[in-house]
Amino acid sequence: MEELLIINNAYFDCFTTCKESEVSTNIERAKEFYEKDKALYESHLVNYPNMSDHWQFQLDKTNKILQSGFRAVTWKEYCKLQREKWLSKEPKEITREDYNYALNVLPPKCWIRNDRYSMFFIGECTTMTYYGQYLYDKVSGKYYTALTDICDKSTWLDKMLNLS
User: Fold this and answer.
1) Rounded CA gap, 31 and 27, in Å?
2) Is 143 helix (H, G, I), strand (E, B) or coil?
3) Cβ contact 6:14 at 8 Å
4) Element holding 86 (H helix, E strand)
5) pLDDT per residue as tens digits for the range 64-83
6) What's the whole-model pTM score?
């Protein structure tokens, strides 16, 4: 019997894994966990007003999770949801300073340089095989970033920007 993952419907984050017979119990556990977080953030809003922006952000995120609910999915379904979540954003134009910071913060992975562009992945993944990728287009003089799959070249910035 395949283990299932209990995820929230807002961000598709995994709460736990369980057997099919344990799904309803673990969904209740997830709700209780986030209700406790909600109470904590509400308390922190009152007790730590100097950090109210942070606690409000956490509270809003937790409320969204609680409102959207939870469900059980297979590993295959989870990977598909994660891929859609993380790799669905368009490339973002950034500054040269942002590009250089990313290049120097960690050793780059898979740094590709040619006559048209210079492109690399930041040295640490976001999740699974998804890495922040950065590209300098030498023709336009513009800099870009996006989250891409280091193992799937069809998701890379040079493909998104039609540079290859």
Assistant:
1) 6
2) strand
3) yes
4) helix 75-87
5) 999 999 999 999 999 999 99
6) 0.78
